[in-house]
Amino acid sequence: MQRSEIINWLRETDPGWLEDLWRLADQTRRENVGDEVHLRGLVELSNHCVRLCGYCGLRAANAGLQRYRMSDDEVLRCARQAVEFGYGTVVLQSGEDPQLTGQRMTGLIRRIKAETPLAVTLSLGERDDNELAEWRRAGADRYLLRFETSNRELYDRIHPPKADVPSAAKRRKSDRLAILETLRNLGYEVGSGVMIGIPGQTFDDLADDIELFGRLELDMIGVGPYLCHPDTPLADRRAWPDAPAGRQVPADEAMTYKVIALTRLVCPLTNIPATTALATLNTDYGREWGLVRGANVAMPNLTPPKYRILYEIYPDKACIAETGRKCQQCLSDRIKALGRRPGAGRGDSPNYHQRLAADGTSVP
Ligand code: 5AD
Ligand code: FES
Which atom of ligand 1 approaches the CA of 145 most closely? Predict the structure, then answer.
């Protein structure tokens, strides 16, 4: 797809024309990844974080947040629930928490792999190459790390150096693209993504992001609207102004559907979730509309409710008060109402299988 086409679609507001985009994206989804909606049980295992990301409620400097870390047994209980609910994957997500050491995570991954048939996805932030390699050896299948925006200047503004390294010398510039490359070389299924409508993000930036998705040949791509958290620096609109009038990307529902649809057209074989951030903007239909405009994955939350309310990346997160069982029932009803079906098995990314075949590597 030409860059000019991407920009034109991002700027399109005519509902009639947009119907064409939705139809094309849905058809491309059906032809390439089918009608199954793969379910990933999300376990938010710790809200401790050493980072200072300017948009995120878990940032180290947010002293108002009560912190928690789940025990291995608690995580295992969630994993067993994932099996019971028929999910093929468990996603272990946390802030960047050094107490979740290489060794501790290795033990946890081994236990989940030994005691369940689940695929294990990790989303633990920017970690050492050695840890990433060790977790892969322990059996982790996939890793999610969003690059958030491909505009380096904007990226650096919203990601100040992390809090736990006093010496400036140790403040290595974060290079998520390099980490994505490492993950790929280690044999992970690799997921990334961006936020939509970050203050200062322009239409050109967002078109760059979508083009980069294509070049990175990602196996999974998660995109969601930026949602303002009042206890973060980005909430100060004077310090974090929008891009000049007419250039700022709105952080709204329509823009999120456009990015999902365009991502499907640029990366037909990738797995794309209808994200919680989208469901937060439209609790009634956000997930469904994502699923009929290019998405093929949903991530029901399995985090025990007492912890779930503390995993406050942004306020008013969808499904905050629901139990895992409630989310399971609700999501599977919604999927069936769309004429689709919950995925069976692990739900690997067809893109992953294709690139392994192209590399001459056998499918694990
Ligand atoms: N609004 C929307 N998305 C957010 N994330 C973090 N904070 C916010 C926010 N305020 C997203 C980031 C991160 C993912 C786990 O959650 O893209 O990579
Ligand atoms: Fe949680 Fe519907 S997915 S209540």
Answer: 18
Alpha-carbon span 212 to 65, nearest angstrom = 35
CA distance 334 to 146: 27
C-alpha 46 to ligand 1 mean position (Å)? 15
Residues having CB within 6 Å of any atom of ligand 1: 55-56, 146, 148, 195, 224, 226-227, 229, 277, 313-314
**Residue pLDDT, tens place only, 55-102:** 999 999 999 999 999 999 999 999 999 999 999 999 999 999 999 999
| Structure tokens, 113 | 């792999």
Of the bound ligands, which one is closest to the alpha carbon of residue 284? 2
- CATH architecture of structural domain 3-351: Alpha-Beta Barrel (3.20)
**Whole-number Å distance between alpha carbons of 120 and 41:** 10
| 285, 297, 319, 325, best to mutate for ligand 2 pocket (most atoms within 8 Å of CB) | 319
Task: Please give the pLDDT value at position 364.
Answer: 56
Q: Any idea what DSSP says for residue 152?
A: H
Token pair 């030409």 in the structure block, residue: 2
Q: What's the CA gap between 253 and 302, in Å, rounded?
A: 25
Q: What is the pTM of this model?
A: 0.95
Partnered with residue 39 across adjacent β-strands are 298
Which of 37-46, 167-176, 247-256, 347-356 bottoms out in mean pLDDT, i.e. has the lowest? 167-176
- For CA atoms 101, 148, 332, 40, give the dihedral sign: negative
Q: Which residue has the tokens 């990738």?
A: 270
- The number of the ligand nearest the C-alpha atom of 275 reads 1
Q: What is the pLDDT of residues 164-187, one digit of tens each?
A: 665 554 556 789 999 999 999 999
- The number of the ligand 1 atom at minimal distance from the alpha carbon of 227 is 1
Q: Any idea which ligand is nearest the CA of 332?
A: 2
